[in-house]
Specification:
heterodimer; A: 373 residues; alpha/beta; eight-stranded mixed beta sheet; two-stranded antiparallel sheet; 12 helices; 14 strands; 26% helix; B: 458 residues; eight-stranded parallel beta sheet; five-stranded antiparallel beta sheet
Chain lengths: 373, 458
Amino acid sequence: MTRREWIAMLAATPLLKAAPEAPTAPVSIARCSSYDEDVTAKMAAMFDQLGGLEKLVRNKTVTVKINMTGPTAQRVQGKALGVTHYTHPKVVGATAYLLSKAGARRVRFVESAWATAGPLEEVMLDSGWNVRSLQSAAPNVEFENTNAIGKGKKYARLNVGGSPLMYAGFEMNHAYEETDVFVSLAKLKNHATCGVTLSMKNCFGNLPASIYGDNAGVDEPNESPTRGRQAVCHDGKRQPSKSAPQELHFGANHEPEYRMPRIVADVVAARPIHLAIIEGVETIAGGEGPWIRGVRPVQPGVIVAGLNPVCTDAVATAMMGYSPRATRGTTPFENCDNTLLFAEGHGIGTTDLKRIDVRGLPIEQALYRFHQA
Amino acid sequence: MRWVAILVFAQLAGAAVAPSAWVPMRWPWSDSKSLELLAGGPVNCLLVKSYPADFITAASARGLATLAIVTPGGDTLASARAAVAAQLTGVVLEGDFPEGVAAAVREAVAGAPVIELTSRGRMPLGSNAPIIGTWQGVWPGIAVEEDGAKKSGPTNSVWIDTNTGFIRAVRAWGGAALWIANQPPAKTVVTGTRYLQVIADAAASGAHWVLALDDDFADRLVRREEAAMRDWRRIVELAGYFERHPEWRRLPEYGKLAVVQDPAKGGLLSGGILDMIAVKHTPVRPVPRQHLTADALKGATMAVNVDADALTPEQKEVLRSFTRGGGMLLTGPPGWKDSNPGEGRITLEKAELERLNDIWRDVNSMVGRRNLGVRLFNVSSMLSNVLASDDGKIALIHLVNYSDYPIENVTAHFLGSYKRAVLLTPDGTEKQLDIYPADEASGVDIAKVSVCATIKLE
């Protein structure tokens, strides 16, 4: 089967009826074979294809959620984190530069760093990133570790609205509320519990471990979290701190593959994404980090960006060789539910490739089959 | 290059070199031609099991010191006398001999050097011997579980098997040159990079690993196989790197955190509190319990007293004065005894490790994000050692990378008003680093660390 035939089949597969009212937005794909290429120029061209960043960010505070999942010490084959499971610092720097060039008043990079409430800059240094270089990529670049209350005075309450699946709302670091524009800067990867981890799954990291962590406080947040979020989110063995909205149907289900896609969809509904960027210049296949057996470095050589996270993730999923509308039992959702469909159900965006305007590199030319890599 | 010339001269001067300056290697061959491998390198002291006359003559002509390895079991005195009669420079007693044997051998060889490589527990710590040594050591490297996964230690970081804690504890108690003479693990493929890590593990903490080649490597080397020769050249280069700077071994450990421990007890074990702190890259100054004075704690802001019950009343008063002066003191959990290592044991038992975890958690919590001399970033597969001259004018940060890959973009934030920072690497590179202000400290960035690098601050 040729790539073109595969894409045609993919788009036509009626695995699940798409929500007809779900919005759509253009998605841009660019070839970028190496971080040594001019990443900034390529991303600038992509943003132009999306209509330009200026109208989105001029004079605005822009918060960019990057992906730094897992401890900095855990590496895939000893490689630099940015070429495996973290967002690459060159892409981060290019994003800061371009947002600033488009008139952003302030660019704030955020991540809930693994098991610490310390400064994000130190986590970046521990990741081998040059923080000074990132700071100089644009004026008014800030960093915040959102794993706890951070530089804020209180947590922000963000509600899901509509028909929440697991939580009616979440408490997050102030940075997720005190922003005009929210960007998810994600990595193109598989995920053991969600099939794929793209711009939406990246935002699971919005949740602070101080409230949703294994050693979160029972009543109030623990401002010195030192663990992950397994018990509250993946397993549903305990509720988040009582100061935050509680799980709606606590105890009803303890299967991570059921819970996580729904929680992610709720998170994205609560904290909408205005710009989704997924970088897959170099990444890993087979899972989201080195703690997953069988992960392997791959070089899809692509960057994807879009103004709707569901559309962007749908295109990225197709590029990875999967149907974005596949249901549980179909690769890559063999054992889990499909986050994209829940997000579509929330009315965030469409997963229907026929309704998505793909600009730049066509999907069939960007196709990189992760399961065969 | 000037240093090569110096090394060649040093080798020619060989046997005249003071024993404390010997660079030792177990020499697996006894033919004169094998000595060609040493040309231009720093090794100047060979430990041999057999010693044909022509080999000893050739070694002597090259200025090499030769030491006969004598092990327990035979007629020790006769073996030692035979070695000296065969014109060897001296004798190495390797193993645990009955009490008095070493003294008898010294008398028998009439002034020839006698080096004792004992078990750790029998090392003459604090003695006047120019060289003390042990045949016991862990094989340094990133610990791997049986299933191939990287082992995570009690610090929740990648755990690195290392002799550095032991070496530092011993060095804190005396000025003798320290030889650690453990051999490559049997039935294990030892890559060239692993040899480099083992050399650097000892040297960065001020000791000498007695170079020892596994059989396969030795076979390939004697055939002059290209890959083996390449690895050998790297070994020589790295060993030479530390020998070019003998003054480094004389610098004391620097850090605002002091660990008070009896080197003759827990200090002899690998995997203990010093190694745990090392994995977190907190500069630490070991203070032997026997040397605990107000002066020994000068400049420290935190102290860990591992075995509170072992202190004399005077030593307890020193710690009380330390806390009255604003220092933070952490003591071991109630009932904790820093135990003597058992026969043949050089690592902690599981139960001890779990008890030590309690101390570790408290240390970690006490240290937090404080800069106690140097903070290092992106160094999870590395160990470091911070040394500083007594006048504070020079400081060194040794970095040893235990992974099989070079590590890029390492950052160091250091205290003190140093005006110049230079990166030194085994290949002879000396690169000036930009110093920039960073979080109540000064910072430098290093582009890449292969196996080993040193930041020199002036």
